[in-house]
Amino acid sequence: MAIRVTKKCFLLSTLGVLILAAALTVTLVLVLRDDEEISETYRFAVSSIELRLEEQPDHRYVLNIYRGDDRVQRITFDHDFTDDSDVETFPKGMRLYGNGHNIEIRELEDSAGFAYLSITRTLRKGQIGSDVVHLHDTLGSDQTPPHWYGGPELMEQYYPIEKLRFDDYPYITKELHSAAIIERYWFNTAGVFFYVDKEVPLFIDQDDQVLRFTAKKELPYYTYDEEFVFSYRVGVAADAREAHQKAVERVLNQPVDIPDERMVRQPIWSTWVRYRRPISQQTVLDFAREINAYGFKNAQLDIDDLWEVCYGSLTFNTITFPNVTEMTEMLHEMGFRVTLWVHPFINKNCDPWYTEALSKGYLVKSHNETIGYNTKWWNSGENEASYINFNNPDAVEWYRRRLREIQELGIDNFKFDAGETSWAPADPDIEGPTALLPSSQTVNFVRMCAAFGGMIEVRTGWGTQDLPVFVRMLDFDTRWGWNNGLQSLIPTLLQMNLNGYPFVLPDMIGGNVYGDDILTKELFIRWLEASVFMPSIQFSKTPWDIDEESITISKKFAELHETYADYIIQRMRLAVSHGTPVNPPIWWLDPTDKIAQTIYDEYLLGEDIVVAPVLAEFATSRDVYLPKGTWRDGNTNRVHEGGRWIYNYTAPMDTLPYFVSATFQAN
């Protein structure tokens, strides 16, 4: 049923009064007011959700979403619809139009406890659509503002995400700010989720009150279409957990299989932080011998930067690697699988490979002739490199074929670096649906990588949650704080899981030791402890680079990780079958727990292990919040009831606070 008051009705009534007054020759002083705004209500038949669309005095419209008597979300259509706007209803929704905008609000799904709707308009080039999501605006019995999750991966990964700030931020994958995963997905503790469709040229703004979605045909998006769509979907469920599960089923997808199990059970070792560049065959062999000599297991040994003749050649330098086949055979005999660091760039001085790629149209070219094929990455100067066009199927096949040729030397698989859209020249002139540019470059790169199987790793994604591969966190700095340091580790883990990427590969233990950063023994050990119950562990700096005690402690926690590897794999399989996070936040066990909703320095493994590492320098204790349930201390076997704090939990450097559900049984 729709209840409606319109300005048109008001004006007709006024006109009738004037005619009557004239007929009676009565003098009336009448003030014509324009304060009777349009109001329209749409009720979902099965769920308790109600949409109330209300015009404001400034001719903007607000869509209020109610669950029963409680308002759970407010959206402002930030456009002056002028005083001739109107709303019309149709069987599954309502349509708002005025001043060049025509917004359709359509019911997509209605079931017990869940309502799902789309908000859509088509705009012409030069128009701007801007909708405001109010972050803290609720009305009802519970006046506590909701908390928000999802959004982009960032260098300073605050959690919950209402602490983030953006200003006219183009929502594409980019290396800047470590925004390598940038799903258009947000949800809150009131049980509401938003998903902006991929075809939208999306920019966002965020402050402490609102998240603004803006659609406009500006760079870095494709700007040559005359029309574009501004559409997003809203789901309303009972709570945050239910909302997220509904979103996974409808918009986020879930993985089709799990990645390589050995990468879960045993540590990955990389040459990168320990040796930097260049490296050599002898360096790699010596490193492998050290790992074995100190009694550590391995999933694989990654040969990182710089092994190529030149960047983009995908050809071993025979001076530093005189016999690759012999090297890989020796590594295999020592029990190592061998992976190789690769990237999507070709430097201009890397011939004949650069000339071949250029002549065959395998490089990304800008519409801007001044830019041409030019780009820059961390191993080139300005305008001294180009980016391979993975939107071109022939370029994909060329790149893939060269990787297969490398594998014939005994290389088992690859670590794929970069892939974010921002590395390509601006305003790319490439293949593919124009509405998906430029981010389709990321999608096609990652899908090419995934064709090499579950033993690979990538570091970026956009709508690629279905792929059965590890997604690595971007490079961390060797610091304690939120500024891309240890305290960002758990928020990044949660952000990735809550965007539908459960197969998280944490960055290397201790970070990358860039610039003036110093890796202390304490930071190394605490970083390892924080990573133990994540899906995989990755070393480059080694425990024996520090001291004997570090070796002992590191073995202890590598073995603890391996002890729970079967359970990690079990939770990975549940991610495939049910779309659940491998490492959810602790509120997952009780979405109504208001304390748990804000905990950023603890996480779960599945639903049976609470992990609360020490993340502060010089700290030997911490407060631990246990969520709903009965928990056994993993260090002391003491039993605790959840829903309460444990204050000043003692945790010297060799102790990781963790708690196992009293009902947990390892398979």
The SS-based structural class is alpha+beta
If you compute it from the alpha carbons, what radius of gyration comes out, rounded to the nearest whole angstrom?
28 Å
What is the β-strand count? 33
What is the straight-line distance between the termini? 54 Å
Given the structure, what is the number of helices?
A: 13
CATH architecture label of the domain at 39-251: Distorted Sandwich
Reading side by side through the largest sheet, how are the strands ordered? 1-2-3-4-9-15-14-11
Major sheet summary line: 8 strands, antiparallel
3D shape = globular
Estimate the mean pLDDT confidence: 93
Low-pLDDT parts are 1-34
CATH topology of the domain at 39-251: Beta-galactosidase, Chain A, domain 5
Tell me the fraction of residues in β-strands, as a range: 15-25%
- Briefly, what CATH class of the domain at 39-251? Mainly Beta
The helical percent reads 10-25%
What does this structure look like?
By secondary structure, this protein is of the alpha+beta class. The chain has a domain at 39-251: Beta-galactosidase, Chain A, domain 5, CATH 2.70.98. Helices cover 22% and strands 25% of the residues. The protein contains 13 helices and 33 strands. It has an eight-stranded antiparallel beta sheet, with no helix packed on it. Strands 5-6-7-8-16-13-12-10 form an eight-stranded antiparallel beta sheet, covered by helices on one side. A five-stranded parallel beta sheet has the order 22-19-18-17-26. Strand 7 (101-111) and strand 8 (114-124) form a beta hairpin. Helix 11 packs parallel to helix 12. The longest helix is centred in the N-terminal third of the chain and has 17 residues, at 7-23. It is globular. It starts with 6 loop residues before the first helix and ends in a 6-residue tail after the last strand. The relative contact order is 0.09. The model is unreliable at 1-34 (pLDDT under 50). Keywords: Glycosidase, Hydrolase, Signal. Residues 271-568 form the Glycoside hydrolase family 31 TIM barrel domain. It comes from Anopheles stephensi (Indo-Pakistan malaria mosquito).
